[in-house]
Amino acid sequence: MPDSLPLLEVVDLQTHFRTPDGINRAVDGVSFTVKAGETLAVVGESGCGKSVTAMSLLRLVPEPPGKIAGRILFQGRDLLALTEREMKAIRGKELSMIFQEPMTSLNPVLTIGFQLRETLRLHEKVDRRTAERRAIELLDLVGIPESRRRMSEYPHQLSGGMRQRVMIAIALACSPKLLIADEPTTALDVTIQAQILDLMTDLKRRIGAAIVLITHDLGVVAEVAERVMVMYAGRKVEEAPVADLFRAPKHPYTQGLLGAVPRLGASLLDAESKLLEIPGVVPSLKQRIVGCVFAGRCPHATDICREAMPALDVKAPNHIAACHHAATEPAAA
Amino acid sequence: MSRPLLEVNDLKKYFPIKGGLLGGIKAQVHAVDGVSFHVSRGETLSLVGESGCGKSTVGRAILGLFDITAGQVVLDGKRIDQLSARVLRPLRRRMQVVFQDPFSSLNPRMKVRDIIAEPVRNFGLATSKADLEHKIRAVAELVRLPQDALGRWPHEFSGGQRQRIGIARALAAEPDLIICDEAVSALDVSVKAQIVNLLQELQKQLGLALLFISHDLAVVEHMTHRVAVMYLGRIVEMAPKREIFAAPRHPYTSALLSAVPVPEPATDRRRVVLKGDVPSPINLPSGCRFHTRCPYAFDRCRVEDPELRLSDKDHFVACHLQQPGLAGVAGVAVGQD
């Protein structure tokens, strides 16, 4: 594959759900790319469409009531044009996933070993002995002590952190090109989260997989992502390299989000510090939103924001935002 | 000096695990194993720690939601842990609770007005119907619920608004102390900020004491006065906020703080990554409970359980490294981040 072609190119993704009281536009025209080996974080609050985006990439959205439109080009092939059978061959092999709650995504009545061997034998056509050996190697790779003994244990016998390691081992079993991680550390305690984040960064370096990390935690984003895409009410509102986004956010929603997060150490410097609030609530996705999705809560909103949907414009090098009022930085010399 | 509003002395709560043929007690979960602290009027004390450290059990024990195994809970100088439900009732008014999940802690069959009215009626706080209505409106205004909210059902509200209703219900009893059990943990960032700011304003305005139980250290730092760090049913360190966050003395506190991801890319922090998992509260490790994961553990830690001792003004630590004479060494080794 030539270098110029991204690993994943999503064009105008629309995932809508039919509900008794109207169409829910969970993802409403989102485009982005992921290059081989890079980590893209997708951030936003509940209901912004970030998880539905992840599920759409894997084609795991139930249809009906869901409906996915647009194009999802993975290594040049449009995943939406594939048969379910062709999709199954890719899912778990080249395109892999980790979910938030390892207890519900592991099968409780099968041993860890069985679940690892199953993935390997399904996709790689290896014999039992090889699968067994590779499975143990994978458990070692993700830092599970006494891997040989763990093979015969069931998910409930492991702690939350260990279960998430097993999920990662299964996800990495067939050396995927792209790993989709939906809130992989949200259910874990901070010290365990630190272990899992370290593990993911380390494995990424070794295996070279690209990662789409779905999260609401801006701290996690800052630690592991290279690029960030911010979603709000089903739309992409901003995208930039991680350092630029945190240093100079362009979209008022991103600015609000960053101001609302308490930071360790901040209140020690300034005793009277108050967290920034974003007034109001997220708009309903069941009505077509004319204009900017954030207009109703935005401190800078004017008439144009309520009338015309802002385009995602380049506001600085590699930095795009959908805002009528965000200033454009002159390109750095 | 007057006594603190709430005192907890050597609180223990063990949960029996039944099993075997005869259904006898097989083992015990040492959920809370000797915890002491106090909360003064108008003060926020935060209990922090990871899942299973016993922080929520402490909150529930104070509220009298179950019998405690040993120890004392003293409210305003009066011991309340052994009182009958009837005697406890008027005292319970003074301690209210706000839970984590605003979806399951509000009765879906009660309108907001009735949810807020219930504690006012229960404790006989209103002198007349008009007074009741006045009180409901005043509380709704305090938490900045829109006036038309009173006639609606809980399911019509978002998570943040529901948490306001939960806080309104707690305030309606006119309490001295509110126990916030992960009260903002389930909320989205922007809404969390609204509720955190609201709690801080209410505290200032009404002189409330808060026992803030949370695993979110950044939120805790933002709103607390003092912090008690718990690990496996014990307090391992307790100190004013500045001391805990700027100069932690227990290796567990340091590790916990360094594990929090900071929303600033490319900050070059030295992170102490703890190895392994939290041991089971059924089979506790010998000696110091933290020695199995502590990067500084030495022989003594494996055999001798360190006591929570005063190591500096208002700063308590349970660590052998904090012994007089050794304090300097540990301070350098541990508290540098």
UniProtKB/TrEMBL annotation, chain A:
<keyword id="KW-0547">Nucleotide-binding</keyword>
<keyword id="KW-0813">Transport</keyword>
<dbReference type="InterPro" id="IPR050388">
    <property type="entry name" value="ABC_Ni/Peptide_Import"/>
</dbReference>
<dbReference type="GO" id="GO:0016887">
    <property type="term" value="F:ATP hydrolysis activity"/>
</dbReference>
<comment type="similarity">
    <text>Belongs to the ABC transporter superfamily.</text>
</comment>
<protein>
    <submittedName>
        <fullName>Peptide/nickel transport system ATP-binding protein</fullName>
    </submittedName>
</protein>
<dbReference type="InterPro" id="IPR013563">
    <property type="entry name" value="Oligopep_ABC_C"/>
</dbReference>
<dbReference type="GO" id="GO:0015833">
    <property type="term" value="P:peptide transport"/>
</dbReference>
<dbReference type="Pfam" id="PF00005">
    <property type="entry name" value="ABC_tran"/>
</dbReference>
<dbReference type="GO" id="GO:0055085">
    <property type="term" value="P:transmembrane transport"/>
</dbReference>
<dbReference type="Pfam" id="PF08352">
    <property type="entry name" value="oligo_HPY"/>
</dbReference>
<dbReference type="InterPro" id="IPR017871">
    <property type="entry name" value="ABC_transporter-like_CS"/>
</dbReference>
<dbReference type="GO" id="GO:0005886">
    <property type="term" value="C:plasma membrane"/>
</dbReference>
<dbReference type="InterPro" id="IPR027417">
    <property type="entry name" value="P-loop_NTPase"/>
</dbReference>
<dbReference type="InterPro" id="IPR003593">
    <property type="entry name" value="AAA+_ATPase"/>
</dbReference>
<keyword id="KW-0067">ATP-binding</keyword>
<keyword id="KW-0472">Membrane</keyword>
<feature type="domain" description="ABC transporter">
    <location>
        <begin position="8"/>
        <end position="258"/>
    </location>
</feature>
<keyword id="KW-1003">Cell membrane</keyword>
<dbReference type="InterPro" id="IPR003439">
    <property type="entry name" value="ABC_transporter-like_ATP-bd"/>
</dbReference>
<dbReference type="GO" id="GO:0005524">
    <property type="term" value="F:ATP binding"/>
</dbReference>
TrEMBL record, chain B:
<keyword id="KW-0067">ATP-binding</keyword>
<dbReference type="InterPro" id="IPR027417">
    <property type="entry name" value="P-loop_NTPase"/>
</dbReference>
<dbReference type="InterPro" id="IPR050319">
    <property type="entry name" value="ABC_transp_ATP-bind"/>
</dbReference>
<dbReference type="InterPro" id="IPR003593">
    <property type="entry name" value="AAA+_ATPase"/>
</dbReference>
<protein>
    <submittedName>
        <fullName>Peptide/nickel transport system ATP-binding protein</fullName>
    </submittedName>
</protein>
<feature type="domain" description="ABC transporter">
    <location>
        <begin position="6"/>
        <end position="257"/>
    </location>
</feature>
<dbReference type="GO" id="GO:0005524">
    <property type="term" value="F:ATP binding"/>
</dbReference>
<dbReference type="Pfam" id="PF00005">
    <property type="entry name" value="ABC_tran"/>
</dbReference>
<keyword id="KW-0547">Nucleotide-binding</keyword>
<dbReference type="GO" id="GO:0055085">
    <property type="term" value="P:transmembrane transport"/>
</dbReference>
<comment type="similarity">
    <text>Belongs to the ABC transporter superfamily.</text>
</comment>
<dbReference type="GO" id="GO:0005886">
    <property type="term" value="C:plasma membrane"/>
</dbReference>
<dbReference type="GO" id="GO:0016887">
    <property type="term" value="F:ATP hydrolysis activity"/>
</dbReference>
<dbReference type="Pfam" id="PF08352">
    <property type="entry name" value="oligo_HPY"/>
</dbReference>
<keyword id="KW-0813">Transport</keyword>
<dbReference type="InterPro" id="IPR003439">
    <property type="entry name" value="ABC_transporter-like_ATP-bd"/>
</dbReference>
<dbReference type="GO" id="GO:0015833">
    <property type="term" value="P:peptide transport"/>
</dbReference>
<dbReference type="InterPro" id="IPR013563">
    <property type="entry name" value="Oligopep_ABC_C"/>
</dbReference>
<dbReference type="InterPro" id="IPR017871">
    <property type="entry name" value="ABC_transporter-like_CS"/>
</dbReference>
